[in-house]
Design goal:
Structural class: alpha+beta
Shape: elongated
Helix content: 25-40%
Number of strands: 5
Strand content: 25-35%
Largest sheet: 3 strands, antiparallel
Distance between the termini: 24 Å
Oligomer: single chain
Order of helices and strands: HEEEEHE
Number of helices: 2
Strand order of the largest sheet: 3-4-5
Amino acid sequence: MYGELLDSESEQSVEEVVAFLKAITDEIESGEEVAIEFDGKSVTVPAPAGMVELEVEVEREREGDDHDEIEIEIELEWLVDTVEPNTESVEDSDDLDEESDSEQLELEDSESEESEEEVESNEPEEDSEQDLEIK
């Protein structure tokens, strides 16, 4: 139903990386939302309210005769409540033109299809796992 929300990579100065990581930790600590802005893209997810699974991987690989590459991957995972799509319809109004009515019908049809797909899915509806991977 969801999937990868943000995946980007760019070279940054040490100061920029430190500021980025501090911003994420501040967002997590706030307990509200985690807003991540990176490489001109952004995503906001609910902050963890309970336990967080932390995975750390450190690698060192030969990159040439005179240097190695160090890679540190930090992955955080937590569960959040599943947000149900808003299926409320717009109240009928004489002010709505035919185009707006048509757009509302298309919206309701697409929400209905999404609802049917969710019923067919075997995924739990109460919680969803939130992945946050930093490379």
